[in-house]
Amino acid sequence: MKKYWYAILLAGVACTPTRNDTDEIQCIDATKARTGRLVVLNHPLVHHHLSIIRDKNTNSSAFRFSLKRIAEQLVYEATKNLSTIAVNVSTPVADTICKCVDPNRKIFIASILRAGLGITNIASDIIPNAEIHLLGMYRDEKTHSPVWYYNKLPETFKNTHSITVFICDTMLATGGSASEVVKMYLRKGIPEENIIIICVISALKGVNKLFEEFPKIKIITASVDRTLNQECYIVPGLGDAGDRIFNTVVAK
Ligand code: PRP
Ligand code: URA
Q: In tens digits, what is the pLDDT along the chain, a chain of 252 residues?
């Protein structure tokens, strides 16, 4: 267990356990993690909804509802540094000056199918004028490496320095899938510091892999779980996120 906390410290995050470290689920103190490139939400309602989506007895509809509630919080956290411009607005009572998200900043929401859709649907509701990228990828059952099956993005983008990319996936396990997607955007010229990964549950192994490979990216998550099992599922995690969102769980 000591090794677990040491590894989080190595990931560049000052942290203290919010619960006794013999607890099944390990969390990082969000107020301290905030200074680093890893932000772990620490909000009572996020914990509440996490407890619902982790529960194996939660049905698909309740799973999606709670997942959306967590996704909303993750998206607000991930977008809090977006630049704004002043706009004149007339209310029914008076003229005033408001702020809106800078329309010159291009925003991409990248959804890693299928489980990324659980976040993307909410992100596209909240973030104005975002371009949505659907990226089809599954993990090979034996090697656990990601396999692409859908990507219709153009070879290059214009003005890449004014683009922010939010990569959304419910689970970050080995980090293989997210890493593939980050590399794909880097090849297209997007600066690493403009890439933010949003995931509901992450595993320490995946977080460390991504920070080692890409020192300037950010990760926003609701939990960093302790380990992976032999099938590379996150422990304790929530099982197969895609199956639970889309109600395709096969009884074993
Ligand atoms: C899941 C999940 C992530 C990936 C994470 O996808 O949605 O994309 O695994 O694992 P990694 O960090 O080890 O790459 P899965 O292959 O289960 O596909 P699905 O979402 O279509 O069910
Ligand atoms: N993908 C999932 O859906 N769940 C895990 O625990 C790991 C990868």
A: 444 544 444 444 433 334 433 333 444 444 434 457 999 999 999 999 999 999 999 999 999 999 999 999 999 999 999 999 999 999 999 999 999 999 999 999 999 999 999 999 999 999 989 999 999 999 998 999 999 999 999 999 999 999 999 999 999 999 999 999 999 999 999 999 999 999 999 999 999 999 999 999 999 999 999 999 999 999 999 999 999 999 998 765
Query: Which of 143, 170, 187, 244 is flagged as catalytic?
Result: 143
SS3 content of the chain, % helix, strand, coil (to 5): 35, 30, 35
Q: Is the CB of 38 under 6 A from ligand 2?
A: no
CATH class of 2-246: alpha beta
Distance from the CA of 201 to the center of ligand 2, in angstroms?
A: 9
The answer, yes or no, to whether any atom of ligand 2 lies below 6 A from the CB of 234, is yes
Closest CA to 123 of 105, 107, 136, 109: 109
Q: Which amino acid is at 33?
A: A
Q: Domain residue spans in the chain?
A: 2-246
In the chain, the N- to C-terminal Cα span, in Å, equals: 31
In this prediction the pTM is: 0.88
From residue 225, alpha-carbon distances to 5, 71, 157 in Å are 11, 17, 35
Per the annotation, the verdict on 226 as an active-site residue is no
Q: Is the CB of 205 under 6 A from ligand 1?
A: no
> What is the CA(112)–ligand 1 centre distance, in A?
8
